């Protein structure tokens, strides 16, 4: 297999605000994003992507070795097209890797992978879907994501699958302080030799594996319950990390978290509870920020999806917070909260609105749209990223301005709802 193209389709809009600044296959679940997992499974394959046009400049800049929206890339060779919403492991990947040209792997009535012959030009997601309809079907296994809460539901099992998938080309740290407690099978714990583990850390692998990546730092009195993943150079400060958590690279995490995904480059340094949540990069959760993930009557939680409230069918759903959003101390999020990108949250001592649009602020409990929010947010983003040796490029700034225009109707509608009360 020499050539793979990852495809995001129209359903990616359901994953907003998580996908406002990235393709759906760049969302984390388990150790990896879908792209990273494919690169692990096929390290020698050439990779291309078909994504929304306005994401192209930033994505091409961040991934210079990937062909972006280049139909000639797929046509030049026999190519395997992957649905960007498909979660797989080594076994499910093996099924689709053997597809013959003109064949499609189908899961729950939707295509997950299709192999096209050399000379076949597929320039858009719709082109791929139409080609798949004419292809010879075979049954796929794995999980095709439909809604954002499924990232959380699948995370624990995906952590376990990814633990088995990853090559261990270095030896797990063996010179741990004898005051570090490992509960369960030590073979289910991988600690990169460059990671730092203080005394009085508890690593509980009785219910699943724990992976601590390179350069991570785990401070004393932290407890990690597997399945769990701690990414590169992340730091945990007296944290109680319950099972089913993925913490991406370069995060600062304290307090209690449960069955949550912190994508990477995000801060939850202080005490406070985060449960069944997805936190995007450059989010800062202020001291004692708390989210509810269970209703008092144990009924299923609803979440805003594509402009309408959807029943998740789950009793445990927390918050979904987009990039560059900041919360002040003691922010209180309700079950099933959706918070857009670059929002500023100043609580008023009550539960916050369940839907907070992008580029807005909550000022003493009231939703406001401030015409200076975009420029102030860009300035804050540039400063925050610089603190982690990252740069807000001109392409990334342009993308923020495009998304600001795209989300205008969402802000207008939210303000109209507030005024009508």
Notes on the structure:
The chain has about 425 residues and is an alpha/beta fold. The chain has 2 domains: about 5-145, Spore Coat Polysaccharide Biosynthesis Protein SpsA, Chain A; about 150-370, Hexapeptide repeat proteins (UDP N-Acetylglucosamine Acyltransferase, domain 1), CATH 2.160.10. It contains 9 helices and 38 strands. Strands 12, 14, 15, 17, 18, 20, 22, 24 and 25 form a 9-stranded parallel beta sheet that branches. Strand 8 (about 105) and strand 9 form a beta hairpin. The protein is globular and about 60 Å long. The model has no long low-confidence stretch (mean pLDDT about 95).
Short précis:
This protein has 421 residues and is α/β, with parallel strands linked by helices. The chain is built from 9 helices and 38 strands.
Largest sheet: 9 strands, parallel
Q: For the residues shown, what is the average pLDDT?
A: 94
Q: What sort of overall outline do the alpha carbons produce when their principal axes are compared? A: globular
The CATH homologous superfamily of the largest domain is called: Hexapeptide repeat proteins
CATH architecture verdict of the largest domain = 3 Solenoid
Kindly provide the name of the CATH class of the largest domain: Mainly Beta
Total strands: the figure is 38
CATH fold-level assignment of the largest domain: UDP N-Acetylglucosamine Acyltransferase, domain 1
Q: What is the first-to-last residue Cα distance?
A: 58 Å
What's the number of domains?
2
What portion of residues is helical? 10-25%
Note the beta-strand portion.
25-35%
Number of helices: 9
Q: What is the rounded Rg?
A: 21 Å
**Low-confidence runs of at least 5 consecutive residues:** none
Structural class: alpha/beta
């Amino acid at each position: 297999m020499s050539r793979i193209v990852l495809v995001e389709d129209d359903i990616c809009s359901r994953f907003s605000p998580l996908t406002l600044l990235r393709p759906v296959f760049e969302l984390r679940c388990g150790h990896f994003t879908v792209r990273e997992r494919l690169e692990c499974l096929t390290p020698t394959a050439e990779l291309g992507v078909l994504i929304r046009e306005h994401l192209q400049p930033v994505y091409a800049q961040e991934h210079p070795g990937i062909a972006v929206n280049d139909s000639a890339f797929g046509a030049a060779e026999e190519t395997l097209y992957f649905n960007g919403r498909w979660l797989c492991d080594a076994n499910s990947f093996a099924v689709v890797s053997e597809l013959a040209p003109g064949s499609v792997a189908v899961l729950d009535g939707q295509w997950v992978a299709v192999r096209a012959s050399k000379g076949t030009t597929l320039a858009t997601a719709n082109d791929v879907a139409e080609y798949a309809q004419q292809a010879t079907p075979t049954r796929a296994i794995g999980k095709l994501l439909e809604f954002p809460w499924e990232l959380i539901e699948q995370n624990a099992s995906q952590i376990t699958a990814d633990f088995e998938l990853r090559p261990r080309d270095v030896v797990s740290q063996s010179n741990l302080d004898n005051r570090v407690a490992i509960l369960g099978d030590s073979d289910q714990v991988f600690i990169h030799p460059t990671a730092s583990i203080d005394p009085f850390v508890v690593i509980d692998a009785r219910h699943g594996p724990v992976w601590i990546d390179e350069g991570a730092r785990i401070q004393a009195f932290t407890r990690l319950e597997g399945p769990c993943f701690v990414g590169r150079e992340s730091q945990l400060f007296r944290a109680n990390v319950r099972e089913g958590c993925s913490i991406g690279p370069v995060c600062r995490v304290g307090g209690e978290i449960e069955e949550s995904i912190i994508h990477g480059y995000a801060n939850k340094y202080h005490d406070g509870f985060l449960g069944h949540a997805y936190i995007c990069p450059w989010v800062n959760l202020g001291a004692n920020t708390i989210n509810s993930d269970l209703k008092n009557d144990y009924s299923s939680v609803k979440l805003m999806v594509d402009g309408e409230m959807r029943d998740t069918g789950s009793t445990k759903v927390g918050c979904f917070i987009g990039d560059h959003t900041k919360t002040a101390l003691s922010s209180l999020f309700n079950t099933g909260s959706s918070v857009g990108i670059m929002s500023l949250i100043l609580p008023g001592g009550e539960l916050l609105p369940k839907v907070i649009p992008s580029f807005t602020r909550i000022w003493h409990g009231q939703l406001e749209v401030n015409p200076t929010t975009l420029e102030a947010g860009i300035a804050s983003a540039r400063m925050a990223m610089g603190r982690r040796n990252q740069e807000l490029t001109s392409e990334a700034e342009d993308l923020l301005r495009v998304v600001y225009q795209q989300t205008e109707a969402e802000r207008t509608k939210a303000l109209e709802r507030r005024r009508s009360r």
